[in-house]
Amino acid sequence: LAHAHLLVVGDGAERNRLEAVACEMGLDGRVHFVGEVPPADVPAHTALADFFVTASRIEMLPIAVVEAMAAGLPILGLDVPWIRQVVQPGVNGLLSAPEVASFAHAWAVLLEDEPLRARLADGARATSERYDLHRTTAQIVALYEWVVGERGR
């Protein structure tokens, strides 16, 4: 995995600590902290990636996951309820037990298996279409119309 680089886009309270840990581990040349970027710059950063990683255990459905899928990035996430609603292992990404060894193994698989990444990328793009703005708007409008129709009965 000597060729791997990690691009961390976004900011938070843990950034300084994480930068220090990367430096202490001798990874400061391979772990790149970009910080917060304007929304218009997100696609340029996304285009640099081979896959998208989320280690969140509590979010419902972060828009970043859907954006990454729309860009054709497979998703690597923890096997927690919220992400199981979106990520189908072997179809559009991989899920890992919430343990460091398991997560690291899944990460290594995605880094090394280019045909797998390509297949998952196709699945990610297809999955993202379910979250298309026009499609979801139409579904919400249809739901409201059904609710209003039911109340009128």
Summarize this, please?
The chain is 48% helix and 13% strand.
What does this structure look like?
By secondary structure, the protein is an alpha/beta fold. It has a single domain (6-151), classed as 3-Layer(aba) Sandwich (Rossmann fold), CATH 3.40.50. The protein is built from 7 helices and 5 strands. The chain starts with 5 loop residues before the first strand and ends with a helix. The mean pLDDT is 90.
User: Count of helices?
Assistant: 7
**Tertiary shape:** elongated
Strand order, sheet with most strands = 3-4-5
Proportion of strand residues? 5-15%
Number of strands: 5
Number of spatially distinct domains: 1
Largest sheet: 3 strands, parallel
> In angstroms, what is the radius of gyration?
18 Å
Helices and strands in order, then pairings?
Layout: E1 6-9, H1 15-24, E2 31-35, H2 42-46, E3 52-54, H3 63-70, E4 75-78, H4 81-84, E5 93-96, H5 100-112, H6 114-128, H7 133-151
Helix pairs in contact: 3-6
Keywords, separated by commas or semicolons:
153 residues; Rossmann fold
